[in-house]
Amino acid sequence: MYRMVQFIIPPAPKTAKARAGRPKDASKKAGIIRAASSLFMKDGFELTSMEAVAKKADVSKLTIYSHFANKEELFKAIIHQRCDQQAMPECFMALAHLPVEKALIDLGHRLTSLIFSPDSLRLQRVMQAEATRHPQIIKIFFEAGPKRVRVAFGELLAEWVRQGKLRVDDIPVATEQYFSLIKGEMHQKALMLLAPKPTARELNKHIRAAVTLFLSGYQVKAGRS
Amino acid sequence: MYRMVQFIIPPAPKTAKARAGRPKDASKKAGIIRAASSLFMKDGFELTSMEAVAKKADVSKLTIYSHFANKEELFKAIIHQRCDQQAMPECFMALAHLPVEKALIDLGHRLTSLIFSPDSLRLQRVMQAEATRHPQIIKIFFEAGPKRVRVAFGELLAEWVRQGKLRVDDIPVATEQYFSLIKGEMHQKALMLLAPKPTARELNKHIRAAVTLFLSGYQVKAGRS
DNA sequence: GTAATACTGTACTTTTTAGTACAGTAAATA
DNA sequence: TATTTACTGTACTAAAAAGTACAGTATTAC
After folding, report:
1. How far is the CA of A36 from the CAs of A79, A144, B133, in angstroms?
2. What is d(CA B40, CA A140) in angstroms, rounded to the nearest whole number?
3. Contact (CB, 8 A) for B193 and A196
4. Per-residue CA distances from B137 to A178, B36, B37, B129, B142 (Å)
5. A123 or B205, greater pLDDT
């Protein structure tokens, strides 16, 4: 039964068919998305009202409903858009020929500045809050964001193993460990508003400690079997 | 102005003064707390209605309002109560004379079975969802739960350092690293309902890997300065 | 120019829920 | 027994928000 889906022809490809009459205003839609984005990120799904979105976008409420079927669809559109923004430039492999320690520290800085950015924290908070009510969205978010980064890191690790710089039995496990150490508990606290943004000094110390521990487990030392 | 608060005498210490008339029924209150607890943990603050609590506790809505001023107070009472339950038996020091590796693995199992328990996951989810609206409660939750456990673990590490089994420069950092590794990303996924409960085998492997990495960084090897 | 569609503003319906009013009953103290 | 307080059930108020109806204006394709 499921196989058949692959052969179904998409129902009427009415793309930019210019269907007679005044066309929709793309700038209106963009304005709605911008307004909704900031409100959803600030207040979450439940506490953001469509009226507030309309007001902030300087648009009639009915205009919103002409672009998005309902509140859920609007929310999904916002999350999709923000996930795309969050994607990291996949330039991990460029680090493959640096000294391992330096590369890991550099990466640590880039990752922390991403995940501690106000936007990322807000998105993460909203996702967690809505986890039970929007499980599909969470999945999209995870695949588009965290997962891609981890895959790229795994490939970098594999390259270093090939170069004989690291000794890693289980790459997925090591990847998870690196990210766990880099995130640490500061991230959890930042999510819960329990800690102010860490200072540059704190971050530096944190990242160095994480990389040191990671390398003590995986770096190839002179004179090993 | 604020200082004065410290000197204000508590307004009439009517403790168990038996203030004439029918006394409040403690079992009603307990029933309300029990019902509210399960509902708040399931649906969070906003989506739990007082009517639902009343119905589940088999009690009149007004009875709830006679025991708790409003919904927020009821919620706070629930969180307090659950925090107290979550506290781990502080028997960490009993592990001080076991072999370090065995102790860390044992501890890892206890910690994971705590934080992956349905109750803990639910509490954590509710806390995260309500973080922005109830910052004071979050603080209480953190001090009563996670923080106490970390302090106890830090003392255990210090004891091992004293015994010459470990070499740890910065105990808070090492503590954070241990907990980060033990929690890993599985916990995050479990919170977001992205992963089913990990199997015993997976947990075992995960904990072993975490402890191995931790010890490779902090265990004293024969023949070191 | 005409028909079709987009957009606006206002007002409305519907639903949900926190919190209250009230009238009555039950259980304790004095 | 009289009084005071706890509890119940029903019905209510008030507010908030999703979504719709409608009447009118603006903008485009044909």
Report:
1. 10, 21, 20
2. 27
3. no
4. 31, 16, 15, 12, 9
5. B205
Class of domain A24-78: mainly alpha
The answer for residues whose C-beta is within 8 angstroms of residue B104's C-beta and 6 or more apart is B178, B211, B214, B215
Q: Where are the domains of chain A?
A: 24-78, 87-218
Residue A62: CB less than 7 A from any atom in strand C: yes
Any alpha helices (H) in A87-198, and if so which ranges? 100-115, 118-129, 135-142, 148-162, 171-191
Model-wide pTM > 0.90 = no
Give pLDDT, residue A144.
Answer: 82
Structural contact between residues B67 and B76, judged by C-beta atoms closer than 8 angstroms: no
Confidence category of residue A78, pLDDT binned at 50, 70, 90: very high
How far apart (Å, rounded) are the C-alpha atoms in residues A215 and A203?
Answer: 18
SS3 (DSSP) at B219:
strand
SS3 percent helix, strand, coil of chain B, rounded to 5, is 70, 0, 30
B169 SS3 class? coil
Strand C, CB < 7 A, residues 158-197 of B: none
Q: How many percent of chain A have pLDDT more than 90? A: 63
Could you say which of 1.10.357.10, 3.40.50.300, 1.10.3720.10, 3.30.70.1020 is the CATH number of the domain covering B87-218? Answer: 1.10.357.10
Cβ count near A32 (within 10 Å):
23
Minimum-distance nucleotide, CA of B17 to C1': C29
Residue A152 predicted with pLDDT over 70: yes
Helix (H, G, I), strand (E, B) or coil at B205: helix
B217 touches chain A (CB under 8 A): yes
* pLDDT score recorded for residue B197: 87
B200: pLDDT strictly greater than 50: yes
Instruction: List helix spans (H) across B9-60.
Output: 26-43, 50-57
Q: Are B100 and B160 in contact (CB under 8 A)?
A: yes
Tens digit of each residue's pLDDT (9 = 90 or more) over B160-189: 999 999 999 999 999 999 999 999 999 999
Residues 54-93 of B with CB under 7 A from strand C: 61-62, 65, 70-71
